[in-house]
Model the fold of this input.
Amino acid sequence: MTPEWMVIVPLKSFTVAKGRLRTHLGSEAATALAQTLATGVVSAARPRHTLVVTDDDAVADWANALGVEIFRPSAPGLNVAVQEAYESLREREVRAVITHGDLAQPHGLGSFVADDGITLYSDHHGVGTNVLVLPSGLDFTFRYGPHSLQLHREEASRLHLPCTIVKDSPWAYDIDEVSDLDR
Done:
């Protein structure tokens, strides 16, 4: 049986997201940008099943209005949230696609096919992990933050799984800095 696909999108409150852009854009515009980018990611993930991971009530309401499943982590923080959401899929045979909710060009998230093992889509700097694809049920530890691409590669090696790194995808661009707004 071919495993189904599950897109996991961790999101913090739109009212605090894009912190590095708030001074430049203003609070209201940064909030609107965070929600617009997240809407684009969730829309691009269709027709795949999507799980929005959040501890924020307003984001949960937004996700519910879009008709996607919601997962509430037990504690704040990106790694904790993704780890718990991924572990909740342990009994399901799925290929999990963990993607940031601020991709500038999320097109294709709902239709691409990744290699077996683990596939890492880097950020445009070649050091971060914007999209990570792996089968459910692994003892994988998520390590988002500085140099996450290398840390996730090391995690794949620890598990003796093949790891493919893609550096030239449209998903390399997320919106974090003022210079990213030109995309």
In short: The beta strands are 4-10, 49-53, 69-71, 94-99, 118-122, 129-135, 163-166. The CA atoms of residues 21 and 178 lie 6 Å apart. Residues 4-182 form a domain with the Spore Coat Polysaccharide Biosynthesis Protein SpsA; Chain A fold (CATH 3.90.550.10). The first strand starts at residue 4 and ends at 10.
